[in-house]
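Progress note, sequence design subtask.
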């Protein structure tokens, strides 16, 4: 039970007093580290206001994009973001990547270049950027993420009509421009490019489209191709999940550089459950989180997380506290 609660801001964290314990609440910009197939233990950095994006993908986990935005803005103070990332890295036992991703398109933040640079000046942890690739045709954007160690763009379609069906982009954005941007980025960038293709049954999985995609990614010379499919509740229920054996066939078709990452996620929940629950308990040792926070950082659906939290509570690993209208979970020492 909460005996006393104080919400204040210091070093961009809120604090919650529960009995004599002091808990960190959700930081403003960082989340995790989250266990990730592609990036190991990844400390997410979200530098975009919720759903500020130039796409409205049918598979988006963050929800629908109310207004598609193409204007790059300096949303937050560079120092505040960098401070929070470095402080979190000092607190965290293991972080394999600092990953710019989150609830919108990170390259829409005008300050991403300075943020990456300042973080790399302070820590050795490699930096990754997950992007929809839509702004890579702009030289300034290519330069802005040039210092990242890995860039993970997505390209879900080769044809304009399928691109518009899946990604529902801002009217100014065309797939040909994105492909050209990826090509130019590859020419100048010395880091790794791991390109993700979200395969959606009945939308981009026909033979012609897959051939075109393969042709493009082969010419681009990316370092890895990651095939994904819809595994969590999508923005649009019409987004169709591919069967594992169909993804495996596609993986073989795309060749040696290709990996299926969605099947890992499914296996991840079953076989690697101890790993992610341990990671969660370690986060809950440092800060109390609501069930929504936990769903966000783990990427697991709310009903499933609620069920898992009940089990962990019964096992005596975590406990729940009421604070205002919310229930916060923390780890038991
Ligand atoms: S680009 Fe990312 S954030 Fe934007 S709509 Fe698509 S999935 Fe969502």
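Output:
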């Amino acid at each position: 039970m909460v005996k006393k609660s104080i919400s204040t801001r210091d070093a961009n964290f809120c604090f919650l007093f529960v009995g004599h314990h002091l808990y960190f609440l959700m930081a403003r910009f960082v989340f995790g580290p989250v266990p990730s197939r592609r990036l190991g233990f990844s400390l997410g950095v979200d530098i975009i206001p919720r759903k500020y994006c130039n796409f409205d993908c049918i598979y988006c986990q963050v929800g629908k994009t109310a207004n598609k935005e193409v204007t790059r803005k300096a949303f937050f103070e560079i120092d505040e973001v960098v401070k929070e990332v470095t402080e979190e890295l000092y607190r965290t036992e293991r972080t394999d990547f600092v990953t710019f991703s989150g609830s919108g398109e990170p390259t829409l933040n005008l300050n991403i270049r300075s943020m990456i640079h300042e973080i790399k000046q302070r820590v050795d942890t490699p930096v990754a950027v997950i992007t929809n690739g839509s702004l890579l045709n702009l030289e300034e954007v290519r330069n802005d993420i040039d210092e990242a160690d890995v860039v993970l763009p997505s390209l879900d379609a080769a044809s304009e009509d399928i691109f518009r069906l899946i990604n529902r982009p801002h009217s100014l954005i065309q797939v040909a421009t994105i492909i050209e941007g990826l090509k130019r980025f590859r020419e100048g960038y010395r880091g790794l490019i791991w390109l993700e293709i979200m395969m959606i049954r009945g939308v981009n999985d026909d033979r012609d489209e897959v051939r075109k995609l393969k042709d493009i990614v082969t010419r681009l010379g990316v370092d890895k191709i990651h095939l994904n499919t819809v595994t969590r509740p999508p923005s649009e229920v019409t987004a169709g999940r591919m069967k594992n054996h169909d993804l495996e066939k596609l993986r073989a078709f795309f060749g040696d550089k290709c990996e299926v990452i969605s099947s890992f996620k499914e296996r991840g929940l079953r076989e690697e459950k101890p790993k992610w629950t341990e990671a969660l308990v370690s986060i809950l040792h440092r800060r109390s989180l609501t069930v929504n926070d936990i769903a966000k950082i783990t990427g697991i659906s709310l009903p499933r997380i609620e069920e898992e939290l009940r089990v962990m509570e019964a096992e005596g690993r975590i406990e729940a506290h009421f604070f205002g209208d919310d229930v916060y979970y923390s780890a038991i020492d």
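Residues 59 and 239 are 6 Å apart (CA to CA). Work on this subtask will continue into the next period as scheduled.
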